[in-house]
Amino acid sequence: MESPQAKSAIVVSHTHWDRAWYLPFSSFRFRLVRLVDRLIDLLESSPDFHSFTLDGQTVLLNDYLEIRPENKPRLEKLIKNGKLICGPWYVSPDLFLVSPESIIRNLQIGFDTASRFGGSMQVGYVPDPFGHIAQLPQILNGFGLTSFIFMRGLSAKDKEVAGSVFTWRGPDGSDVFSIYLADGYFNAGSLGLPSVYGRHEGLEADPQLAADQIRKTVSKLGELQKESVFLLNNGFDHMPEQAELPSLLRRTQTLVPDIHLTHGTFGDFVDALRSQAKPHAVVHGDLIGNADQPILLSVYSTRVYLKQLNHQAQSLLETVVEPMDVFASTLPNRAESTYFLERAWKTLLKNHPHDDICGCSHDGVHQDNEVRYREVVETGEAILVEALESMRLAGLQPPSSTGPRFSDVFVFNPHPWSVTTRITTRILLPNADAEKGVRLPIERLSAIDAQGHPLPLHLVGSVEHILRNHYLEQTWGRAYDIEFDITLPPLGYQIVHVFTTDAPSAELPVMPAPETLAHLRDNLFFAYEHDLGDTYSFGPDPSGAMVKSILVTKKSTYLHQHSITVPVKPASDEQVDIPINVSHSYSHGCLHSNIRYRNIAENGRMRVNIPLPASPHEFLADAHFRIATRGIADKQTPESHPERYASYPGELTYPTQHVKDFVLVPFGDQVLRISTHGLHEAELTQIDGQPVLAITLHRAVGELSVGGGRIRRVQAGPQIPTPGAQCQRELDFLLHIGIEPKADGHAIRNAREQSHRAWVREMPYLPHVPSGHTISRSHSMLDIAHPDIELSAYKRDAATSDLIIRLFNHSSDIVETSITIDRNRGSVSITDLLEQWSDSMATSFQNHQIPVTFGPHQIVTLRIRA
Questions:
Q1: Residues 255/208, Cβ–Cβ less than 8 Å
Q2: Cis peptide bond upstream of 649, omega within 30
Q3: Model-level pTM?
Q4: pLDDT value, residue 1
Q5: pLDDT per residue over 169-208, tens digit each?
Q6: In a 3-state reduction of DSSP, which class is residue 107?
Q7: How many Å separate Cα 755 from the centre of its chain?
Q8: In 3-state terms, what secondary structure has residue 304?
């Protein structure tokens, strides 16, 4: 019989530091600076204080040094010597509401920052996000991280099978050694003090109380793991260091002689756990369970305007700015812009901590978020404008024909396949003499594509006398709002030339929606319910009351006005009417529905409901580096599950499901696709017997956290007013709906095209720059023929200008294919997610073709040199 191993416990000193939450960033940073000041003195002067872990994120170092730059050498020495532990993340992110590429950039910047200070923690420590994506094991492995420590997300079913130490396996087969913090990242917080959280100044830690706390915690952990080494987390949210810990552990050790106590790090614990080599169960899929901690999944729809701004900023950087930066870097006299890109990425990532992007913070936090998003977009647009200016200055090929007044329109396709799309944009045709007083009459316009082929054109409207103000430019002229159809090359651009002419141009054809889409268009409706919850969880009204919209007017086939009359707030007799304007258009197999209204009610949820021809039991949702199957959740109530509701965490199932960019609903031999721009919450349900896909537009609440909701009983945070979370503002949403045969196989690409649409801008007005023959009016950078292979990143390495291409296989099949790039020959190396060149993995290529083999659901990163 094997003798039982002696018990041991590793105590890790740390703090969990939300940069901003129930207080704004500046308030928390004030406390952070005081904390780090004390830590530096403590770690330098107390050799018996083993180490302190700064929450797995390096942004805190930058936050500190902005105030105390003189202490950088001291921080570097402590980190290099392993006394202060930082990384691997830049910020501790939410993992569902941000793009998969941003998760990789987060770790890249985190590793880079940590290396500059002395080195990163080699543990995938992500304690507090509201769930973890199924592809995280592959992402962590891509950075050499093979262990993972987390708190939220394990389901009761997986916990029963796997306990607290298990293998988490991604869809591609990647594994991480996983440690579940069933009792939180604070199970030894404020050791020897009466509570883990609070102001403890003036109290002295009691060794006997510490011994009792340790025994209780180790006993509880022992029920969930086979190993005899246990993790004790000495920290909590924003809690300061426990400076007396080494002395306290020595005094406590005599009271728990059967448990060997060590002051150490998360890495020490992972190494000790692995040394015992016990077999472990395997867990698959997203971690969104709530066995021991609330998972808080209604954050997908809290402060929806933040999600929309995030989608805009992410999409611009990833799909337009970085590819165009690669192209522009080859132009003569092109100024370097990598430092602007780095700034934009860091600014964006500062909005990705879960309390930020989830919308569950003090109003001031989210006002800061909006400013950051604006900065990211403005920086990205400035980089793009400079790239277009560089094209002009390098000598843009002249069009094959033109007129007295003209404008060039740059249209960029962010996808590595050819896209045919309808473009709506504004151009300005300058006055001939550039004087303010000239008022040009409306003129006929013609348009040609880059090859000189005529393009049918529709004039939407015109403004006769307008001033365009750009950098060092004030141009008077007539503005024209125009529409045209264009076929764009894969990951590339076309420049459309629009000019005045005497000859009438071909009119853009009006495309009537097919009967199936017309039926959806005319029968979609809106539903409003009270929300008695908070920023974390929807709070259903016990009465189940719901108000459906009515179609007030149908001004035309493509302009509908709905109206919905609701109580101004719950339990109020006052009613308010919310007019909902929906403008529809149809082109190239897709119905585009623009929804606008001003929310003037409080504590309610508005959803748009798309009627379904059948009652499916599941749908496909765009997820992170994969397409996920989402089912219908078991609808639980406090009455149906009283024991679960009464016990901690007192949280039932959420019927809504996560969506990244789009939804696919198969029925019969067809598939319905709905693409969005930052709407992340959907549900298959029935309303009055009609099966629908309900997509949340907004969810309005007035407090950060409240208890007693019908989905969640316990508090999830402090109860403070958050009037900004009522979303009483103009709201604007865009849905793209299509129906196509399943056998077509292009539903995913078609859906992706709509969530990330072509970028359009009038070329800069540089009247004194002559045309040339250097820069083509059309160009393709990357073509991927295989429909299962998608693009995540196309960028250049800042130090070497090597081309980085990141691709992924969204299917469960092995895929062998070739990609076509705009370089005739060179060398290519498959790399990890740190993107380092590997001679052993390098091969040459020619004729613009790079063969690549993908395993099921595999992410592949290529580094390419000329």
A1: yes
A2: yes
A3: 0.97
A4: 33
A5: 999 999 999 999 999 999 999 999 999 999 999 999 999 9
A6: helix
A7: 13
A8: helix
